[in-house]
């Protein structure tokens, strides 16, 4: 694993990130004020390390940079439009929704306020905390569907379903209603704040929550295509000691092409590929073993299993995939037999 051991930290600026912390008086006093924002200085993550469709990435960054231009508040005011910008990032887990938001904050040198919806104990807490970010800050609401705020049709079905006892029932009680969330978004968030919501289940959300004016743009963060797979590979095996622009050698470029050719479009996430490459001894091993790994991952997903392979994937096992010769006489696996089941990340 030399590529892991020898990597040096990328020279990045620090970003102020706020997360929710419980009130220390919660357990000892009736005067608890609920959760509060706590700041932490973290090293920013470079946007170049976020593996996603480059056109989507560029579009998102340009959109927000335009929103933050000094002339924009007056432009909005002259047209009677509230000065705000809202985004919905949706897609499977591990596709970079949260990572992109964190990297974006570092790139723009803005503070990031991040919370999951199930961390808010009441609507009063939510309104109070939503009012804290200032102009130019980013408010990231992760897993917006996790609070149990569903489409009205789903809520009607739930009313007809008997309540369950125990933890399952408790997890559905967040104290947050749809109307309370809408009021907090509309009335508590200051103008100039960039609102980002993430969800794995966009169709479960009520349309009122994501209508234009609250959510201006929706972006799908999907499973990888071969271009993104190649990007992950070159990022993991680049030579960090080389000058900028020379970190990807011709040999790594060639191996990246072979590696990406074995990744079926729309079946695995960037996070899954990154995890696989992290434990590979070197780039050649990754190219050799990825075919079997892909088959195991896809088979596990189709079967609904959490464990990949019979007992988990082991490096160095024989690859049962069909190999073909490349121009150099080496063997690698192509994925022409895979069907395209999901689209790559795109603006919708």
Give a structural overview.
Residues 83-225 form the AAA+ ATPase domain. Belongs to the AAA ATPase family. BCS1 subfamily. This is P-loop containing nucleoside triphosphate hydrolase protein. This protein is an alpha/beta fold. The protein has 2 domains: 2-220, Rossmann fold; 226-342, no CATH class. Helix content is 35%, strand content 14%. It is built from 12 helices and 10 strands. The strands form 2 sheets. An 8-stranded mixed β-sheet has the order 2-1-4-5-6-3-7-10, with helices on one face. A two-stranded antiparallel ribbon has the order 8-9. Strand 8 (323-325) and strand 9 (331-333) form a beta hairpin. The longest helix has 21 residues, at 283-303. The two termini are 39 Å apart. Mean pLDDT is 81; it is low at 1-11, 156-173 and 314-348.
